[in-house]
């Protein structure tokens, strides 16, 4: 079976003061058809840049190497015309802020219909009607009226529903959702997680869900990738990672999530120290300065992502399964 | 923790015909941390600004140590403000990009302690920077040279340098990563313990509020709907909105998947809709009375107040009729 997305040895760097600052280093991953993969990590861990590279949306000064295959076709060295055949139709992306990713001066219907006119060759009339049906499918109340409205007339949650609808118009095989609920209230967030779950069921697309919120990812993902300092440090089934994290970073992160039940704490658990600055080069493991299990070897030799049971972990001394 | 430091009474804030806060009353005690939760548009930040009289349109009274901040003279207000400080959500945009962070932290001292020598001021600023976990020498740098978490430490240093009696934190950790959030919350807790500061902590992160608050106030559509200790509120929420809010928090435990209450997909109601309970359009328990009469805030158990006509019937936590 051909994976929907296959990334091999992807590295992305940005020039600064004459040096190349690595944002993503040797990332390899696969997303199978209909699979939901959650990508978690802190800001600066490179999780967004991996998928910006897949979408051909890296900023102009970025240097990328490696291979990105979407349904067997190489995207890395593809020209804009080839990219545009898949981007926005079979491979789509939802961004964090639905206000800035919708054009403020165009009606919702125009923005949705345009996708179908460009990618599916529909007439404007047909495209407009399909857009209305799509708004209904993403549970936007009163879709016909909404088509004529502008983004500022919609709440944040409704705008994100419109974005999700737009991403699904051409029946994509992979939707990349980058922090789709982070700007929204917890009640609206819960509705959107529910919607994404329903859409996966209805459309059968694969979903790459990027988030720093473990709870959001836990509710949806089949498999989870944890990124730290530009590299994947752990990959495992969702149920596995929350019950038996193997990488000390994953385990420490999980301890930091404040709970809604159990005893109340006088102080919140924290992860000591800071993630490495971009461009800070270390011989060994990037997590070593903050790691409770650190040993001499961690500071001199970088651990590679290796299979450990059903999971993969990049650690010399992983936690027992 | 028996004396009320701040007594907000019948506070109403409206922008034009639009009521953002209506008839809100609560007390904040000396040394207490009061958590304030609610969705965007519920009036949390407006409440913070109204208390500090950063808004003109507030009515009612905000009694601060016996003085009404809403009606006192400008000179009196200014004198009280050294004891009332605020930390904002976005740490970078609340610092002047053209001012060194040392100058930004020193500014309150220049205003309220003008007799202080430049040397003494520099020592206070340096000590404060170290107190919030930064190096004293960092005072010479500019805001853009710091990370989000560090900027928030600077914002806290600026707010705490005068040893205020009340610190209002408006979503202080919402823009920060999970591992940094805990560090900032712990810093606030340490400073509060050392200086005896009371805190109004506004956040949409219910879990954070639960751990650090003595009491939690829930707002919906400009109204107080429930107030209780975190133990009571989180174990046995009484207002249907509080229940929906708690049920909506994504859980890490996989087995909890799909157990969340079904939330209706509806736009939030226009604030200040006349008559009845503001939550009735979304409430699974709404009755005819909910549309006609505003539910009064009533004490359901000792110290546990709730504004719901049906709260006594909805004691079973987190379960919704389907």
Provide a descriptive summary of the structure in words.
The complex is a heterodimer of chains A (321) and B (322). Chain A is α/β, with parallel strands linked by helices and 321 residues long. Helix content of chain A is 33%, strand content 23%. Chain A is built from 11 helices and 12 strands. In chain A, helix 3 packs across helix 4 (124-137). Chain B is of the alpha/beta class and 322 residues long. Chain B has one domain (4-83, 164-313): P-loop containing nucleotide triphosphate hydrolases (Rossmann fold), CATH 3.40.50.300. Chain B is built from 10 helices and 12 strands. An 8-stranded mixed beta sheet of chain B has the order 6-7-8-3-9-10-12-11, sandwiched between helices. In chain B, a hairpin with a 2-residue loop joins strand 9 (215-220) and strand 10. In chain B, helix 3 runs parallel beside helix 5 (148-160), helix 4 (118-131) crosses helix 5 (148-160) and helix 5 (148-160) runs parallel beside helix 6. Chain B is globular, with a radius of gyration of 21 Å. Chain B starts with a strand and ends in a 16-residue tail after the last strand. The model of chain B is unreliable at 254-263 and 316-322 (pLDDT under 50). The interface between A and B is large, with 46 and 45 residues.
Q: What is the gyration radius of chain B calculated from CA atoms?
A: 21 Å
Number of helices of chain B: 10
Which value, in Å, is the CA radius of gyration of chain A?
21 Å
What is the helix/strand order of chain B? EEEHEEHEHHHEHEHEEHHHEE
Name the beta content range of chain A.
15-25%
Secondary-structure element string of chain A? EEEHEEHEHHHHEHEHEEHHHEE
Kindly state the percentage of residues in helix of chain A.
25-40%
CATH class of chain B: Alpha Beta
Structural class of chain A: alpha/beta
The whole-number mean of residue pLDDT values of chain A reads: 92
The CATH architecture of chain B would be: 3-Layer(aba) Sandwich
Neighbour order of strands in the largest sheet of chain A: 6-7-8-3-9-10-12-11
CATH topology of chain B: Rossmann fold
Query: Separation of termini of chain A?
Result: 29 Å
